[in-house]
Design goal:
Elements (H helix, E strand, L loop, with lengths): L8 E10 L2 E11 L4 E5 L6 H8 L7 E6 L2 E3 L4 H7 L1 E4 L11 H7 L9 H6 L4 H18 L15 H14 L4 E5 L7 H18 L2 E5 L3 H7 L2 E6 L2 E6 L1 H5 L2 H8 L4
Parallel strand pairs: 3-8, 3-9, 6-7, 7-8
Antiparallel strand pairs: 1-2, 1-4, 4-5, 9-10
The protein binds adenosine-5'-triphosphate (ATP).
């Protein structure tokens, strides 16, 4: 059995290159269960690549990943989703021609037990399952205050709301680990505050462990329990926000004295 006190995710010596160009060099850190970890660092530091390693989109050349007690050289995207890793993307990846509700329902696909045929003909397990899936999707929509737009096409929504729908779809999968790639990018200060509150609420209400990439240091300091700093693919800081903000190497990277 997995110990509650063990980290939900452990990265050990992860290195990743693209055609010989190093994107990530020997990165190790732990993500504690039920906490919010922020990944920060200048553009091109390797943050998105690292999320792609965690959910199995990229295959690291070295290192290993321990997720919820299971050790792997690499994750496989489907297996990562089945094991409870959900993510949102820097450039929103929703079905723009579908309603908010239908998008959130797609987040529940892995939870279905009925066969394709049962679903197509609405027989067997399908009808009861459809009702249960819909109820769960509606709960997530209510939790994230998206009810007024349940039947609105995603393409008709302003950017900030689309980001929230993406969060809803990821949450609908009931993940253990939620990976958020710049959930507040392109938002104004009020929208960022609102999104921060939603992320904090998700974490508190459902105990979901969160790893997020964020450029706004104010948001990071307020929201996260733990900060990991990357620069040129290397880890240059790892600790509580207050400690990391005093780290001279982090200050140098951010003030641009080495860039
Ligand atoms: N698919 C890819 N093919 C080749 N190089 C890539 C690929 N993905 C990322 N890289 C390179 O890897 C390095 C890290 O990029 P990554 O996108 O992970 O950084 P980042 O910290 O997320 O940056 P940003 O804040 O701009 O999103 C960069 O030099 C980038 O050009």
């Amino acid at each position: 059995m997995t110990e509650i006190s063990s980290p939900l995710l452990r990265l050990e010596g992860i290195s990743l290159s693209f055609k010989g160009v190093k994107a990530i060099s020997d990165i190790s850190f732990d993500v504690a269960r039920g906490r919010i970890t922020a990944l920060i660092g200048p553009n091109g530091a390797g943050k998105s690549s690292l999320l792609n390693v965690i959910n199995g989109v990229y295959r690291p050349q070295a290192g290993r990943i321990v997720f919820d007690g299971e050790v792997r050289r690499r994750m496989d995207p489907h297996r990562a989703a089945v094991r409870g890793i959900a993510r949102t993307f820097q450039n929103i990846a929703l079905f723009k021609g579908m309603s908010v509700l239908d998008n959130v329902l797609t987040g529940r696909n892995l939870k279905r037990r009925s066969s394709w045929l049962e679903q197509a003909l609405r027989i067997g397990r399908a009808p009861a399952e459809d009702d249960a899936q819909r109820r769960r999707a509606e709960e997530v929509i209510a939790f994230l205050h998206l009810q007024p737009w349940r039947h609105t096409l995603v393409s008709k929504l302003p950017y900030g709301l689309q980001k929230r729908v993406e969060l809803a779809r990821a949450l609908a999968a009931e993940p253990k680990l939620l990976l958020l790639d710049e959930p507040m990018a392109g938002m104004n200060a009020e929208e960022k505050r609102e999104m921060s509150r939603f992320v904090a609420d998700v974490n508190r209400e459902f105990g979901t462990t969160v790893v997020l990439i964020e450029h706004d240091i104010g948001v990071v300091m307020n929201l996260s329990d733990h900060v990991v700093v990357l620069d040129y693919g290397r880890k240059i800081g790892d600790g509580p926000p207050d400690e990391v903000r005093r780290n001279p190497e982090v200050i140098a990277a951010y003030l641009g004295t080495r860039h």
